[in-house]
Write a structure and sequence with these properties.
It contains 13 helices and 14 strands. With about 400 residues, the chain is α/β, with parallel strands linked by helices. The protein has two domains: about 130 residues, Aspartate Aminotransferase, domain 1, CATH 3.90.1150; about 240 residues, 3-Layer(aba) Sandwich (Aspartate Aminotransferase, domain 2). Helix 2 packs across helix 9 and helix 11 packs across helix 12. The protein binds pyridoxal-5'-phosphate. The site of pyridoxal-5'-phosphate (PLP) has 12 residues, from helix 3.
């Protein structure tokens, strides 16, 4: 009988492994969230967060998952019936779009095949055609976690600029922040939406919005109902290290430690590590003779890889075998990809040997499940990991 003694491998594309240092920070006693010690922590945190988003502007922290930060982005900037343009890159873009509909927005969708990112040319055409300037916001998921495709967000900004269109640009970076290069200010983003449980290496429970000056101006006249999600009382209280309601105190302890780890490694090094792990994972998949779902090499995700299973093989069965035999969790196919792909997460604080172990586990699981493959796939990944 196989042994499952040893660490569980949590290789889903979020939540990710929480480093021991972060867990220990979270375990400290909860303190008075209106006392001086906590206020000093909040002011330090808000500073240390800015370079991670690439902004000099405010970053609002919500005690919520990423979905809450989606809602905050919409209700703070838009009014009932406003037209919003979505790029359908996959399951997460579809969920955000459904939320926009349920909030009473007029949603226009640029369809996609779930193998490509948001298409700057298609966005440009849609904006050019909008002579009445009815579109108030363009919403894009930077890294589509259901497909492993990273959209070229600067290209979307260029499309807005080329069309001379005043719409806001709202970007979901829930599974790319602190793992893939991203620059809120330099790329001209109005609202960035993030969460704690992926590249930030924390447990779930914090949602973030980085907010441009233009988005803050829009918030003055936006009429969608909001109270808890209203940015303005948070930004005002934050000036003194406070929050309008009780923040997730212990997660904020963890956030300070996670930011310390990120800044100690250096953000460029963090991005390079993820890119290298993405390349090694794709080398394994190709070496096995299987397909990566992402169809455009400019859009490969550095944080996860979706592997297409050959016809007649059920990805969920393979995942179940791998969990049962090797104690490793992989991501399921979501929405229309259910059963057809498995997703290997390679984000958060993982080292080369963790990735090598992950890919070995995937290879053995595919073999046990009877998926035909070339076992030299693992060697191809190791060659890449061994390279200086
Ligand atoms: C995980 C994820 C979300 C959802 O975040 P929750 O924390 O589950 O609410 C949204 N968008 C993307 C791209 C994600 O990966």
């Amino acid at each position: 009988m196989a042994s499952r003694i040893g660490q569980h491998f949590l290789q889903i594309p979020g939540p990710t492994n929480v480093p021991d240092q972060v867990l220990r920070a979270i375990a400290a006693p909860t303190i008075d969230h209106r006392g001086p010690e906590f206020a000093a922590l909040v002011l330090r945190l808000l500073d240390a967060l800015k370079p991670v988003f690439g902004t000099d502007g405010p970053v609002v922290i919500h005690p919520a998952s990423g979905t809450g930060a989606w809602e905050a982005a919409l209700v703070n900037t838009l009014s009932p019936g406003d037209r919003v343009l979505f790029c359908e890159t996959g399951h997460f873009a579809a969920l955000w779009q459904q939320m926009a509909r349920s909030l009473g927005l007029d949603v226009v969708v640029l369809p996609g095949d779930w193998r490509h990112g948001a298409d700057p040319d298609a966005v440009r055409r849609e904006l050019d055609a909008d002579s009445g300037r009815l579109i108030k916001a363009v919403c894009v998921v930077h890294n589509e976690t259901s497909t492993g495709v990273t959209s070229r967000v600067p290209g979307i900004r260029q499309a807005l600029d080329a069309a001379g269109h005043p719409a806001l640009l709202l970007v979901d970076v829930v599974s790319s922040l602190a793992s893939i290069d991203y620059r809120h200010d330099a790329w001209g983003i109005d609202v960035t939406v993030a969460g704690s449980q992926k590249g930030l290496m924390l447990p779930p429970g914090l949602g973030f919005n980085a907010v441009s000056r233009k988005a803050l101006d829009a918030a003055r006249t936006a009429r969608l109902p909001k109270s808890f999600w209203d940015w303005r009382p948070v930004i005002e209280a934050n000036r003194h290290g406070l929050f309008p309601s009780t923040p997730a105190t212990n997660l904020l302890y963890g956030l300070e430690e996670a930011l310390r780890l990120l800044h100690a490694e250096g953000l460029p090094q963090v991005f390079a590590r993820h890119a290298r792990h993405g390349a090694a994972t794709r080398a394994a998949v190709r070496g096995w003779g299987l397909d990566v779902l992402c169809a455009d090499e400019r859009e490969y995700s550095a944080t996860l890889t979706a592997v297409v299973l050959p016809d007649g093989h059920d990805a969920d069965h393979v995942r179940a075998v791998i969990l049962e035999r090797f104690g490793m969790s992989l991501g399921a196919g979501l929405g229309r990809l259910a059963g057809r792909v498995l997703r290997i997460g390679h984000l958060g604080r993982i080292g080369d040997l963790t990735l090598a172990g992950t890919l070995a586990g995937v290879q053995m699981g595919l073999q046990l499940a009877g998926v035909p493959l070339d076992p030299r796939g693992l060697d191809a990944a190791l060659d890449l990991l061994r390279a200086p």
